[in-house]
Amino acid sequence: MPRVLLVSFTYPPGFGSGGIRISKFAKFLPEFGWEPVVLTVDPAYYPFRGGLETLLGNERRYTTGFFDPLGWIRRRFPLESPPASDASSGAAPARTSLSRRILKKFRPIAKYIWDIIYFPDPQIGWYPYAVSAGHRIIRDCGIDVVFSSSPPHTDHLIGAKLSRDFDLPWVAEYRDPWTDQHTYRKSWPVSAIERRLERRTLERAAGLISISPILAERLSQKLGKLVHVIENGFDPDDLPPPAAATGGPFLLIHAGTLYRGQRDPGVFFEGLKRLREKMDLTPSRIQAQFVGVLSEMALELAHKHGVSDLVSALPREPYETVLQRQSRATALLLLGLKDPMGGGVLTGKMFEYFGLRRPILGVGAPDPDLEEIIRRTQTGTFTTTPAAAADVLSRWILEYERDGAVRYQPAEDEINKYHRRESAGKLSEILNRALGRGVGGNC
Q1: Is 411 within a domain?
Q2: What pLDDT tens digit does each residue of the chain (443 aa) get?
């Protein structure tokens, strides 16, 4: 059986949807004739584990150290730092303290320094540890193909280096764009240097993967290579059964990271405000609940729109707890990016929503990939304006109050296409093409 080295900074028990995706590849690849070997960072370097220990299987895992060059500064001077490009970060709510005001004044300089030291991302301190460990793994285990998944994009630098040092085929996966990232823009000339680095790094890739048709098309045009699509998915083994209706208010839940000005509930709250002008909305009738990183931003925006009494925010919770909470929701809120050019980022939470069998209310800028997949699976409605969101929510609230639930008849055949096993099968085909044939070793 050929072996693939899965290079991923994020991996259970560390928290993050990217790590969950890679762990599911590791779980199901053996069914398609591939033995996974995982190279990741030691869990001690994760600030939040998130209860993902249950996702670990029998796959062989190698963990390494990690060096954060500015970590000691952040520990001694806990000021706001420019946000990392990794999907687990975001911009913090505005503060009024003196330190925040001082930092705001010097933010351009701080941002430039950040971009230089953390180039191409804050996980660059993993590079020497991972390359050294990767050398040992490849020599000892007879690795046939190297696979890396980003963000962080340091993973691709590691994958390319190991591929070059051992003349192995390398498959690179983009879960988010690299230099075309819409949640964080780097300073010039760092941005120009990074674009050149991306092109040179990916020249060696024997296979490229993205998570949506739009991202794949953009990447293909940029690099002049074929890019395969493997969407995110869900594993029924992780999901609780749908909870029985218990009455109470219409409960709409969003779980995940918010990004100010990019992926925030402002448009949704404007719709809720408009709906309140037409309906008598009270906390006993509807509650919108936000769980996760920067959920307090939701309260700030809700107050701005005059609907704070209908909104609650909870900090990040363990993965299993979040899934249990979502299974009790009347409906689930999906926030798309506000920038139309950011379309195609099909977040992992949407596919977990599919598995949880709860209707989805999507709100964001027009996104053909997102709209098409919700339409095809018949799992909900995607709206692009406050008026449209208010209209859908009005119908759902009245239906819930009349029938005790929102009508939900998904296309099960379409939903089942996003089982994590299907995703691993697609990856195995790409690995087979990259390899041609493998010889294996004695790991």
Answers
A1: yes
A2: 999 999 999 999 887 888 999 999 999 999 999 999 999 999 888 866 666 777 888 899 999 999 987 776 666 665 444 444 443 333 333 344 555 665 567 777 878 888 888 889 999 999 999 999 999 999 999 999 999 999 999 999 999 999 999 999 999 999 998 988 766 777 889 889 999 999 999 999 999 999 999 899 999 999 899 999 999 999 999 999 877 767 899 999 999 888 777 778 999 999 999 999 999 999 999 999 999 877 788 899 999 999 999 999 998 888 889 999 999 999 999 998 776 555 567 788 899 999 999 999 999 888 888 899 999 999 999 999 999 999 999 999 999 999 999 999 999 999 999 999 999 999 999 999 999 854 444 45
Which residues, 6 or more positions from 337, have their beta carbon under 8 angstroms from its beta carbon?
A: 182, 262, 263, 343, 345, 364, 365, 367
In terms of residues, how long is the chain?
443
Residues 141 and 175 in one domain: yes
Sign of CA dihedral 216, 217, 222, 226: positive
pTM, two decimals, is: 0.86
Regarding whether 334 and 193 lie in a shared domain, the answer is no
User: In this structure, are 409 and 284 located in the same domain?
Assistant: yes
What is the helix (H) or strand (E) element at residue 275, kind and residue range? helix 266-278
- Here the CATH number for the domain that contains residue 262 is 3.40.50.2000
